[in-house]
Design a protein that fits this description.
Elements lengths: L4 E6 L5 H12 L3 E2 L2 H10 L3 H6 L7 H10 L16 H18 L2 E4 L3 H4 L6 E7 L2 H12 L3 H22 L13 E4 H21 L10 H9 L10
Parallel strand pairs: 1-3, 1-4, 2-3, 4-5
Helix pairs in contact: 1-9, 2-5, 7-8
C-alpha cells in the first residue's frame, strides 16, 4: 500500500486528539474522530445520533451479549434484521468505515478500537497517548471550565467507558496494554508538537523514509524540513 494510517488511543485529558491534529497539519492528511460516525451514518442510513450514543461506550451490555451469540462479530446485518440498530451492528458498520479508510487513503484515526481493527495492516502505526492524572486534570479544567473534582470524575468515567468498550469488542484485551501499540507516549513530558514529531520519526523508520512525502503538499514538505523531519534525498 502507498498510503499509511496512524491510530491514536488516548487517556481522557492527555491531549491525544491534539497530537492527532498536529500530525494532520504536519503530514497534510485528514484526522478522523467523530467524522467516522458521520461516515457510518451516511453509509448505513442509520441516524448519526445513534452512532454518537454508542461512541466508545457500551449501552445495554446484557442485550448486546445476547445479540452477539446470534451474530458473527464482523457481520453487518441487513436493515430488515431486528438487530440492525443494535450496538454490535453499529460497531461493525463503523469498523467497515475504518478498514476502508485504511485501504484507500493516508489518515489519522482517533480511538474507535482502530489499533485493534487494523492490527494486521502493514501500513499502520498505532500509538497510545497518556499523561499523569494531575496533568490531565489541569488541561480539562482549563479547556472545559470545570472544577478539579468534576475533572477527576470526567476522567474516571470516560476512561472506564473506553476501557470497557475496548475490552468488549476486542474479546477481552486491556486498552492500556502497551504491547497492543507500536509506541506509548507520555504527553506531559514532551508536549503535543514533540509527540507528533516522535511519531513521524517512527513512521519513517517503520514504513520507509519516503512514505510521508508521497502525498504531502510542497508546503508541508517545507514545514517538515524546518522541523528536521525531512531530508532532501527522501523525496522521489
Amino acid at each position: 500500500m502507498d498510503n499509511y494510517v496512524i491510530t491514536i488511543a488516548r487517556g481522557f485529558g492527555s491531549g491525544g486528539k491534539q497530537v492527532g491534529l498536529e500530525l494532520s497539519k504536519l503530514l497534510d492528511i485528514p484526522c478522523y474522530e467523530s467524522q467516522i460516525l458521520a461516515m457510518a451514518s451516511n453509509y448505513s442510513g442509520v441516524s448519526k445520533d445513534l452512532f454518537f450514543q454508542v461512541d466508545e461506550k457500551l449501552r445495554g451490555y446484557h442485550l448486546i451479549k445476547r445479540l452477539m451469540r446470534a451474530n458473527n462479530r464482523d457481520d453487518i446485518v441487513e436493515p430488515t434484521d431486528r438487530s440492525f440498530f443494535s450496538d454490535v451492528n453499529l460497531y461493525n458498520i463503523q469498523s467497515k468505515m475504518i478498514r476502508e479508510l485504511a485501504k484507500n487513503q493516508s489518515c489519522i484515526i482517533i480511538g474507535k478500537c482502530a489499533n485493534h481493527l487494523l492490527r494486521d495492516y502493514d501500513n499502520t502505526v498505532s500509538v497510545y497517548i497518556e499523561a499523569p492524572r494531575a496533568y490531565c486534570v489541569k488541561r480539562i479544567v482549563e479547556r472545559l471550565g470545570v472544577t478539579e473534582d468534576e475533572a477527576h470524575k470526567m476522567i474516571w468515567q470516560t476512561d472506564k467507558y473506553r476501557a470497557d468498550y475496548y475490552k468488549y469488542y476486542t474479546g477481552g484485551e486491556n486498552w492500556t496494554n502497551p504491547v497492543l501499540y507500536d509506541m506509548t507516549l507520555n504527553s506531559a513530558r514532551m508536549g503535543t508538537e514533540k509527540a507528533a514529531q516522535v511519531i513521524i520519526e517512527y513512521l519513517k523508520i517503520k514504513l520507509g523514509d519516503d512514505i510521508i512525502t508521497k502525498k504531502g503538499s510542497p508546503e508541508n514538505v517545507k514545514a517538515l524540513k524546518q522541523l528536521g523531519l525531512f531530508n532532501e534525498g527522501e523525496q522521489k
